[in-house]
Amino acid sequence: MGLNETPSANRIHIGIFGNRNAGKSSVINAITGQDFAIVSEMKGTTTDPVYKAMELLPLGPVMIIDTPGIDDEGALGEQRIKKARQVLNKTDVALLVVDASVGQKPQDGELIGLFEEKQIPYIIVWNKSDLLPSSAAGIEKETKPEPAAPTREIYISAKTGFHIEALKNKIAALTLTEEPQQRLVADLIQPLDFVILVTPIDKAAPKGRLILPQQQTIRDILDAGAVSVVVRESELKETLEKLGRKPQLVITDSQVFAQVAALVPEDITLTSFSILFARYKGLLDTAVKGAAALKGLQDGDKVLISEGCSHHRQCEDIGTVKLPRWVRSYTGKEPDFTFSAGREFPEDLQQYKLIIHCGGCMLNEREVKYRQKCAVDQGVPITNYGIAIAAMQGILRRSIAMFPQLMAEISKAEIRA
């Protein structure tokens, strides 16, 4: 990712759905002004969801997701349809592309039902309107104004460009109605506050740059007009002594939580990047409650450790190596660990006694909430890396002390070392 590139998790995710040959790929190319998607008269050209990050005016940074036709056939077609439906879990705005010269099919109605069930804002895009008589569907192709904002439908032609700008404006109008996004840390600090960020540089750290949670936290501190001081854990003690004033907050990588907690005086607020991201993505309350399940784990209990990104795993990878080791050490038991990464997340979670999820910096808020809802609906406790580590190291109370509404849950979830 470039230094100035907006993280995919912070982009508006626009999912393009519909039957084969409805013109989904043509619509994408028309609204982006690029040959992003392959266009062909042959049905089923798009076989897997295709993701493309870009700037799309008047929306700004977006993630366009082109999906396979929802009417695909055969065993392979069923797998493609399943992948298309999975895209719904991360879609902020859905476009249902319908061939206006053919009309809606049963699959279109099913998709609309899914949009409404998942509360996804959507627009029905009647493509290929250039093939209709000028009076069809009550439209005059070159003279009838674009439908008023409340309607969910619009007639366009990806081929001629008819109403493409109107479609983009309609998408923008839907996104502007959403609630303001939660701040990462800016609402917890004041201008000119000092915030220390403890960022270990280990084998998993990318050479020459910081990882995404650290980058985003620094940016949010700058937006708040506060001062960020970035150090390794090895320089933390001396930094605290030489800083000249007490920091308002210390934020640490969860992997060195215990070491940092021992160095930071009790009167200084301490938390982790992972805990801040749990709040940012709407998972914090559930994660605190879910941490209570750690103390009840038994030999053979299945535990799912899930990461939102796919990366090359190092010998001391936190998800596959360190967390299992810490859980075994804390519980004295031998749970059965399963791992998932990237866009894959199991639909059937009932076999698991606990889910430990990463901070979700690479997932948008909708997908994190979807995963949370899946767990809650199936009665499976879910927590996240930072909360689990703080709980196992006996510092959960301290790490969320800045969130008074959560303190009532501590007596249930806190686990003392």
CATH class of the largest domain, anyone? Alpha Beta
Strands side by side in the biggest sheet = 2-3-1-4-5-6
Separation of termini?
39 Å
Judging from the principal axes of the Cα atoms, what is the shape?
Answer: globular
Overall tally of domains: 3
Class inferred from helices and paired strands? alpha/beta
Low-confidence stretches: 137-150, 413-417
How many E strands? 14
So, CATH architecture of the largest domain? 3-Layer(aba) Sandwich
Give the CATH superfamily of the largest domain: P-loop containing nucleotide triphosphate hydrolases
Compute the number of helices. Answer: 14
Compute the CA-based radius of gyration: 24 Å
Mean pLDDT: 85
Largest sheet: 6 strands, mixed
Beta content comes to: 15-25%
What percent of residues adopt helix (DSSP H or I)?
Answer: 25-40%
CATH level 3 topology of the largest domain = Rossmann fold
What pattern of helices and strands is seen along the backbone? Answer: EHEEHEHEEHEHEHEHEHHEHEEHEHHH
